[in-house]
Structures are given as structure tokens and as C-alpha cells.
Design goal:
This protein has 15 helices and 23 strands. By secondary structure, it is of the alpha/beta class. The strands form six sheets. A seven-stranded parallel sheet has the order 19-20-18-17-21-22-23, with helices on both faces. A four-stranded antiparallel sheet has the order 1-2-5-8, with no helix packed on it. Strand 3 and strand 4 form a beta hairpin. The N and C termini lie far apart (59 Å). The chain binds calcium ion. The site of calcium ion has 7 residues, from strand 17 and helix 11.
Length: 516
């Protein structure tokens, strides 16, 4: 190895640092008078001072575990020699919320978006076809292929036609507590700003999730004709006028064509950065995620909030161990209480499955140096930046208000992304250390690598290399500023790697209710 050994310490209170070098460090490597006792992979932790059994291990200034045995200075620290601390108690703020109040506004930033009647702004112009039940999925998939081939070329201002495919709708206890989550998720995804209120609905006819239940405003007893999801946009396959397969496909194509005519009249216009709704996520994380990509994303999130926009962060099991920080950042005592309520709900949900938040970490996280969920949470929460938490979005609900919002979702990448779509995000930023090809058809996904080695190896899958903070001495501030610029460019139509390659993950609904 020719490059100098690099150990990164995040907080002066820490007694560990992580290896920054691509490929890790050999036994005997020395940094600042410290000699490594064994080979340590990149992003893994090294003890900066000798530890006795039971001593706290500190990273991000927080206790991420206790030494399970004596560990010498320069020793490798990982899940084999530390114990996870117990989950913190869920209790209210000791005093009134202490959220920062000096949020300095940032003016003069804009993007080119599609303004919708409800005031939201799309970053893409997409015709989405949703359904009330999985039974119709094969027919809709076939129809979408034909629409793309036969109709879409005639409508050059429409970006895409997609099916909002899912596995819900029948064979479920639809009145049970919990069923409301998948139902409102589907309802709100159909209202995502990128679909301009044009979403079509395909129903089978006999399913439990009737159109009137999924979209009461459009199809319920008191439906108003003016609603954008009007009766004209519903196709019911069991309708008696459908004689065979071709009749069903023709019905869908005819309805789609009417929507495409409307969508094709739309043009991008100048929109202030306050119209951004940016969903943040991390997946396939490693110990550098919390050093490079996530802190830089935190700076970008602060810029979006200061510009008046909305930032949504999520992943309950990845904030559970940092809930005290979030409660302190809540903009009001009511928001602090709602944060705690969502944590309690999720603790109960996990305990019903006889598990807890420690089930979160993956084999890849561990290979990437993350010893447990506490360490993972500290590195994950950093991407929320430093602004006050201005609201909490229950799973499947649409965001209300602006600023930094916490959407209470599982940490599962695809379930979190699905719920952030329902919350109304129009740009998604996704950081990764191990690497994931994650992408969505519904909104552009900006992929950020935490390590330069990953960004180089996956050169056509990663939009940004935050590893430069370690590999090229770039500052977290300047990387955060580049991310903010990238968010504005992508919101204006610049295509992401996942869009160019057509990488699209399926929607994955969060359904805590029983199936029958
Ligand atoms: Ca995730």
C-alpha cells in the first residue's frame, strides 16, 4: 500500500476510529503513534485507547456498545467483541422542545417542474395506472406494454406510462386494525405529484378493496364529478360489456389515451426550491455511510429546508436508538409526543413478532463494519441534518406542511420508498455503502456511494461519489452543496443512473393487518 494509513474519528469523545483506506489496513500499519494489532477492513473500527471488559465504546459521541473483553489500543472492534446497549426508554422531553429556531432562509434557488392543480409540483410527467386488487395485474401489465409501444410515441411531452402494481386488495381482513395503512398508502401513491392527478384505476369487480373504498372522493356515494379521479378513469374488468381479453385491453387503452392527451399539454415551468419534497433513505449501509454520504446528505437536507422545501426522513428501527436526539429537535412538544408514539407503536409491532430493533442489521452491514443497530442508527440519523423536526407522518399518510418531516416507516428499502411515495416525495436521494441497484419508476432516485471504490466499480449505477470526502479530501459542506445542486438538476429533468438503465423496484406495501 502506498497511500498513507487513514483513521477517521467523528467526535472528540470517541474512543474508536474507522479505517478510511480502500482495501483496509494491514497488521502493523501505524497512524498517529497507533499500531494496528491485526488487519482491519475498510470502514471497520479500531480502538484508539485500551479498553477493559465492560468499558463503553463511543462513536458519534454516543455509546454504541460495551467491550465484551479487554481490547488493546490498535485492536479491531466489531460485533464479536462488543455488546449492544439496551434500547433507551421512550419518555417525553425533560423540558419544552429545544429545537433550533435560527433557521436562516436561503433564497434564489429554483427548478423546472410540472405544477399541479393541488399546488404540488411534479418532477416527471407520468401516466400511472393503479389497481384495486392484484388479480388484474397481468391484464394491466399487458396494457401498459401496448400503451408504451402504440400510444406513447404520439405524446412526446409525457415521460412514461407505469403500472402501480401491488399485492393487496383481496384475501385480507379489510376492516381489521392495520388494514388502513396499505389502503391509504395506495390512495396517496395515486396522488403523487408526478402523476398530475391523472391516475387511472383498474378494478376486477368482486374484490374486497372496492374503488369506492380506495378512492371515496372519486367513486364513493358522495363523489363529486369534479374530482380528478373521475368515473371516466375507472375500468372494471368484470363489466358485462367486456367480451374477452381484447375488449378489456381496448377499454384500458381508450381511457389511457384520454389521460395522455391531457398530460401531453403540460410543460415544465420555473418553480421555487420550496416546491421540492425530497425523500431520504440509506440502504446497504456500511460504517463509512455515517462518515461521508449521510453527513453530506444532512447538509443538503438543511439547504432544502432553508430554501423552504420539504425533506422526509424515515426508517423507525434506524432512529429508535437516537430518539432522544430527535425528541430534542422536535419543533413542538406535540411533535415530540408523536415521535415517541410512533416508536412505541413500532416496538409493540416488533414484539408481536417476538423480535426487536436489533433484527435490523444485515450480513452486509456487518461486513461493512457496522457492529449493531445502535451504530447503524447513529450513522443513519445524521442524514436528517440539523433542522427542527417539523412534523411526523404516520405510515401511508401524505406529508402536510414543509420543513424536515419524519415519516414513520420500516427501514426496509422498498417498503420505505413505497411509503415515501405515498407521502408525496418528488425526488428521492438514496445513499449506499455496500451498493444496491435500487430505483423507482415513480420518482427519480439519486444514488450516492459512501466509498470511492464502490463509485468506481459501479460507475454507471452511482450518481454521486461521497467517498471523495475520504479519498480526495473534499469537505462535507461542499459535497452537501453538490447534492443540493444535483437535487435541483434532477428535479428539472436530468436523468439519474437508475432512470437511464430502467432500474425499477416493485412497490412493497406495509401491511401490518392479517390476511385471510
Ligand atoms: Ca433503508
Amino acid at each position: 500500500m502506498t497511500e498513507p494509513a487513514l483513521l477517521i474519528c467523528i467526535n472528540p469523545a470517541d474512543n474508536v476510529a474507522v479505517v478510511g483506506n480502500d482495501g483496509g489496513l494491514e497488521k502493523g500499519a501505524t497512524v498517529d503513534g497507533l499500531t494496528l494489532r491485526q488487519p482491519v477492513p475498510q470502514a471497520h473500527k479500531v480502538a484508539l485507547a485500551p479498553l477493559s471488559a465492560g468499558d463503553p465504546v463511543r462513536r458519534y459521541g454516543a455509546v454504541i456498545g460495551y467491550a465484551a473483553e479487554a481490547i488493546p489500543a490498535g485492536g479491531w472492534i466489531h460485533d464479536f467483541n462488543i455488546q449492544i446497549p439496551p434500547a433507551s426508554e421512550l419518555k417525553g422531553p425533560p423540558t419544552a422542545a429545544q429545537a433550533p429556531t435560527n433557521v436562516e432562509p436561503l433564497a434564489g434557488y429554483a427548478f423546472q417542474g410540472f405544477r399541479n392543480e393541488d399546488g404540488s409540483v411534479g418532477t416527471r410527467n407520468i401516466l400511472a395506472i393503479t389497481n384495486t386488487v392484484q388479480c388484474v395485474s397481468g391484464i394491466v401489465g399487458h396494457a401498459v406494454e401496448r400503451i408504451r409501444r402504440e400510444l406513447l410515441p404520439r405524446f412526446p411531452h409525457v415521460d412514461d406510462v407505469i403500472a402501480l402494481d401491488h399485492t393487496y386488495g383481496c384475501g385480507v381482513a379489510i376492516d381489521a386494525p392495520g388494514a388502513e395503512i396499505p389502503i391509504r398508502t395506495l390512495r396517496n401513491i395515486a396522488r403523487n405529484p408526478n402523476f398530475a392527478g391523472s391516475t387511472m384505476v383498474v378494478s376486477l369487480g368482486c374484490e374486497k378493496l372496492q374503488p369506492s373504498r380506495l378512492f371515496p372522493e372519486a367513486f364513493g356515494a358522495s363523489a363529486e364529478k369534479s374530482d380528478s379521479l373521475g368515473a371516466a378513469s375507472l375500468v372494471t374488468l368484470q363489466d358485462e360489456t367486456h367480451i374477452g381479453f381484447e375488449a378489456m385491453i381496448s377499454s384500458i387503452l381508450r381511457t389511457a389515451e384520454r389521460q395522455l392527451v391531457q398530460l401531453d399539454n403540460r410543460r415544465r415551468q420555473n418553480c421555487p426550491a420550496s416546491d421540492l419534497v425530497v425523500g431520504l433513505q440509506c440502504g446497504g449501509s456500511d460504517a463509512l455511510s455515517g462518515v461521508t454520504a449521510n453527513p453530506a446528505l444532512g447538509r443538503a437536507a438543511d439547504l432544502v429546508v432553508r430554501a423552504g422545501g420539504t425533506v422526509i426522513f424515515s426508517e423507525v428501527t434506524e432512529v429508535r436508538d437516537g430518539i432522544d436526539q430527535l425528541v430534542r429537535r422536535a419543533a413542538s412538544p406535540g411533535i415530540a409526543e408523536e415521535l415517541l408514539r410512533q416508536m412505541e407503536w413500532y416496538d409493540r409491532y416488533l414484539s408481536l413478532g417476538q423480535t426487536d430493533r436489533s433484527a435490523n442489521t444485515t450480513p452486509g452491514n456487518k461486513r461493512g463494519g457496522l457492529s449493531n443497530i445502535v451504530e447503524k442508527a447513529m450513522g443513519s440519523i445524521i442524514k436528517s441534518g440539523s433542522m427542527p423536526v417539523n412534523g411526523v407522518i404516520p405510515p401511508g399518510e401524505r406529508a402536510k406542511g414543509n420543513g424536515l418531516l419524519f415519516a414513520a416507516t420500516p427501514a426496509s428499502d422498498f417498503i420505505c420508498g413505497t411509503l415515501q411515495l405515498a407521502a408525496g416525495m418528488n425526488v428521492h436521494v438514496f445513499t449506499t455503502g455496500r451498493g444496491t441497484p435500487y430505483g423507482l419508476a415513480e420518482v427519480p432516485v439519486i444514488k450516492v456511494a459512501s466509498r470511492s471504490e464502490l463509485a468506481t466499480r459501479w460507475h454507471d449505477l452511482m450518481d454521486m461519489d461521497a467517498g471523495r470526502i475520504v479519498s480526495a479530501g473534499e469537505t462535507i459542506e461542499s459535497m452537501g452543496r453538490s447534492m443540493f445542486d444535483k437535487i435541483l438538476a434532477v428535479a428539472s429533468g436530468e436523468r439519474t443512473c437508475a432512470e437511464r438503465l430502467g432500474l425499477r423496484n416493485q412497490l412493497a406495501l406495509f401491511n401490518p393487518g392479517p390476511v385471510t
